[in-house]
Every structure is written in structure tokens, then in C-alpha cells.
Amino acid sequence: MIPEADFCSYLKKLEGLTFTIADATHSLPDEHLQLLSRHIEADGISRRSFENAIQRFYQCSKKIAITNEFAISKSKTVRMLEENEVIEVLEGPTKDPKLGIERVKGKAVTDGAIGWVSMRGNQGTPFLREAQKPCYYCVTNVALDKEFRNANADAPLKTLQAHEVVEVMEGPRKDSFEGAFRAKGRACKDGAVGWFVMKTKEGVANAEQSGKYYTCTAAIAMTDVADIKACKVIRKLDPKEVANVLEGPVEQGDAGVHRIRCKSMKDGQEGWITTKGNKGTVYAEETSKLYALVNEVALHKQFESDGATLVRQLEKGEAVEVLDGPKEEKFEVTRLKGRALSDGSVGWLSVKAATVRPWTPTYRCVAEAELSSSVKQGGEALRKVEVGELVEAVDGPKKDGEVLRIKARAEKDNAIGWVTLRSTEGTDLFKVRAQPAERSR
User: Fold this and answer.
1) What is the Cα–Cα distance from 106 to 56, expressed in whole angstroms?
2) Which helix (DSSP H) or strand (DSSP E) does residue 170 occupy?
3) pLDDT of 82-119, one tens digit each?
4) How far apart are CA 292 and CA 295, in angstroms?
5) How far apart are alpha carbons 80 and 7 in whole angstroms?
6) Rounded to the nearest 5 degrees, what angle is found at the Cα of 341, between the Cα atoms of 337 and 344?
7) What strands, in cross-sheet order, belong to the sheet with 270-276?
8) What is the rounded CA–CA span in Å between residue 387 and residue 341?
9) For 54, phi and psi rounded to 5 degrees?
């Protein structure tokens, strides 16, 4: 928040913010500066209100050219502005004295293209209409990635939780490309199953076959020494448990068994196990499906890495049994670069109706909630918010522990306070009011 006193003090220092009476120049009275501050927002100015006061956005109503010059006759087309694209105004509107039409210089939010756009045609056809700064909110947990093309399925910068809001810095825009080779595997350490990047799109291998591995076909004892007549049991290896060979196999002629010294990939324990008994029973057999990880890599539930759920990070040196693949992943995504309002984190996220949707600051109460005086839960209760009430977000969302809270103005009585959007149990207390186009669908 910018305190009212600080805002007024700053305005008083600005050059030219004066008025003249009878050839005498006067500074604006403090009362006028206070009225201006309160016109933007009472009791101090939030970031959102400040940006709404100094930024202006237009949405394209009909396809129109972005040109490099103000004068249409002298300009060249930068590109076409598509219907529903949003531009941020950098200059204008300015009226062309020859054509009598207003033009604005703007920056396309989609790709940052800068140029001049006509607000209306010479026949009065509207091309631009005023719009709010584009923001999206998360319907569910969404990965925030470092790069536009997360082709190697790197771990996200963070995971945005449901109800978090991101302001659009660039995009949304579509892209299609070929990515990494992914394989389905089972981690020998804990049996976790999922998909991982076996080879990046640059050809870097994250896993390789090195050394010998045996998979237990039955429960078998691991002992401290090779001699089965003079050994002590360290522990038992379970069926399907994997061991890396350190020595052997060796045959003990007098006992008629085959033994190897190995390291369990489950807990790192080292010792001797029997692979084949004196009657030919096989207790462990060599496998060619085991790969050792040479890099840390993410393990996901789904083959498609875009929006996939993280199982866990696989560690360098872990052994993984390949169950399927590797297969090359092909991407067709719509992505945007955004800044999370909760903490300022910046990154790329995928735009899907099931995960993120256009945000408006109007919320509808869907379960009885409490309007309180502080961003922290447990503050002074101002009143109850009833189901069906509409509130407008004037600040936030901000995190308070595990929940997100917004400072809201109730439509019913203009009461202002903080509300929780979703309970710690995962129950929605408020939902973003859908835009007219969304409600009609």
C-alpha cells in the first residue's frame, strides 16, 4: 500500500503541478491532493488500484494492422492485430488531423509488438474497446516454469495453488515443437512409477546402462561373507528387489551354488546373495532393463510433461527399471508468461480451461465466510459474508499460511475486509464470477 500522506507528498514535489490565478502561480492545496488519492482508493493506494489508474488497455474488436508510424500514409505494417488481442497503451489516443481518426501507440501483450493502431475506421467502425489488464487465475495447482518451452520437463520454479492470480506479461500464444524422449520407469529405491526424460531434446542422456543388475525372483538372504556355511544374515531381499553387482558371480563348488556380492538399490546395503541354488532354483536373475541415472530428473505421473503431476525427483545414481519407451514427446501448447500476485514469482504456465481461466476481480460467496480486519486469519471479525453475496477484490490474493486471502469490498454495503478464498480442508468459500461469455457457455 502507498499511504495517502506519502502519495500527496510525492505529488507536491512534481514540477508543473500548479495552477495560475491573476498571473500568480500556486501549488495545489493539500485538500485537492487528498481528494485525488481517495478518488483512486481510500485509506492508501494498493498496487492494483495504482496500476489501474496509470495503465490503459484495449482489446481488439476487429482485425486491424499495427503500423510503425503514426501517419497511415507513411507507415508500414508491423503485423495484424487479431480479434480479442490486448494491447497496452504507450501513447495517445491522438487524433490524425487529416483523417480525423484517433490512433494509439501500443504494445501487444501477446508478443510485445509495438506500433500504432486506429481506434476506429474512417467510417466509424470500432477496432478497439477498453479492457482490464489481462489476468488469469488457477482452477487447480499449476506448474510455473522457467522457460516458454519446457521441452525437457525440468522441475517447475514453483507450483501455483488454486485461486492464485497471475497478471499477464506476455502471451497467451500457441506453439508446437518436438521435445525430449520420455520413458516409463519404476524406481528401484522405493518402487515409484512414472515417466521421466531419458534423453533431452539436445541429445543429452539422463540414464545409461552401466554395470550388472540382478532382480530377485524370490526372497533371498543377504549375508556378510561369501561362504554360506560361515556367514551371518544381514537382511532379506524381497522379490523384485534390485541389486547392483560388485563382485562375481562365483560358483562355490562344494555347495553347488552361484553367489554375487552386490549392493541393494533400495537401501544401499552391501553383502552376498545366492542367485542360483544347488538344485537349480533361481533366486535372482540378470536384467537388461535397468538404467542408472547420471542426472537428477523429475518423475511424472503422465507421459505428457505439460501440466503433469510430479511424483518425485529421481536422484543421480538411482537405478530405474524401464517399463515402456523411450518415446519422443511432441508439444502443442498455449503458454503465457505471468507474475503471481501472491509473491511476485515470474514464469511460464500452460493455458487450459481445466487449469487456468481469465480472471475478474468479482467473486461470489459459495459458502458462508467471515470478513475480518487483517490479512492474517483470526483478526477482528467485521461480519459474516452470506452465500450468494458479491465482493470485489481490491488487494491480493495474498498467502496466509496454507490459504489465500483477498482484501474485498462487499457489493451489499461497501464493507471492506479480508476473506479466505478456500479453506484449509480444500472447500471453496468464494469463486471468481465468470465473464459473460463464459457464463453463456
Assistant:
1) 10
2) strand 165-187
3) 999 999 999 989 998 888 899 999 999 999 999 999 99
4) 9
5) 40
6) 70
7) 233-237, 220-223, 270-276, 257-264, 242-252, 213-216, 284-287
8) 26
9) -110, -10
Q: How many CB atoms lie within 10 A of CB 69?
A: 13
Burial of 345-381, coded b for 16+ CB within 10 Å and e otherwise, reads eebbbbbeeebbbbbbbbbebeeebbbbeebeeeeee
Q: Is the pTM of this model over 0.90?
A: no
Measured over the CA atoms of residue 9, residue 13, residue 19 and residue 23, the dihedral's sign is positive
Q: For residue 367, give the amino acid letter.
A: A
At which of 296, 324, 357 does a domain end?
357
Q: Total domain count for the chain?
A: 5
d(CA 267, CA 187): 12
Concatenating the DSSP letter of every residue in 27-74 gives EPPHHHHHHHHHHH-TTSB-HHHHHHHH--EEEESS-EEEESSSSGGG
Asked whether the beta carbons of 132 and 49 are under 8 A apart, the reply is no
For residue 229, being part of any structural domain is answered with yes
Report the C-alpha gap between 226 and 20 in whole angstroms.
102
Q: Which three cell numbers stand for residue 51?
A: 496500476
**β-bridge partners, 187:** 320
Query: Is 322 inside a domain boundary?
Result: no
Residue 183 in grid coordinates: 520413458
Q: Which residues pair with 176 in a beta bridge?
A: 332
Place of cell 511460464: 348
> Which residue segment(s) compose the domain that 340 sits in?
135-177+333-357
Asked if pLDDT for residue 396 goes beyond 50, the answer is: yes
Q: Quick check: 219 pLDDT over 60?
A: yes
CATH, residue 64: 2.30.30.40
